[in-house]
Write a structure and sequence with these properties.
The chain is mainly alpha-helical and 152 residues long. Strand 1 and strand 2 form a beta hairpin.
Length: 152
């Protein structure tokens, strides 16, 4: 492949996961997470101990709830991005242009990777194994079924 084909392949590989990610965010906005604990000094006066403890307890509860919402968001992202990325790998079988086919394969791999990143620690080993097995099978099927390039 020449420079133009590499540029197209690279562009598709980078843009495809971003397209899926921002498309996902369009319909399922990311949750907001509290940024930092409450300030203990307001202006020049120090807050009293009881108010500080109450504010800190409130902040911790907001963090706990935000963590649960974030976990749901990560699960939804995993459930969307892994199948879409895997489908992109399989669809590449039917794409006649080399640079588009390669870009879809790379983009599909990066999309599935992005789907795994934030949810990896919550997935049990069996689900990890089955997901990775499906992706590996998709890559192997694509490698065997893909039409040969004229330059190969």
């Amino acid at each position: 492949m020449g420079l133009r084909q590499h540029a197209i392949t690279f562009g598709i590989a980078v843009i495809f996961p971003m397209l899926i990610y921002f498309g996902f965010l369009t319909f399922y906005p990311a949750p907001e997470v509290p940024a930092s604990p409450p300030v203990t000094v307001i202006g020049k006066e120090k807050t009293d101990d009881a108010a500080r403890k109450l504010a800190l307890a409130d902040f911790r509860e907001k963090q706990r709830v935000a963590g649960l919402v974030k976990e749901d968001f990560n699960r939804a992202m995993f459930s969307a991005m892994v199948p879409i990325g895997t489908a992109a790998i399989l669809i590449a079988i039917f794409v006649p242009l080399v640079e588009l086919r390669a870009g879809m394969i790379y983009g599909g791999v990066l999309t599935t990777l992005y789907g795994f990143v934030n949810y990896w620690s919550q997935i049990d080993h069996a689900a990890k194994f089955l997901s990775l097995l499906l992706i590996m099978a998709s890559l192997i099927i694509t490698a065997y079924r893909m039409p040969k390039d004229k330059k190969d």
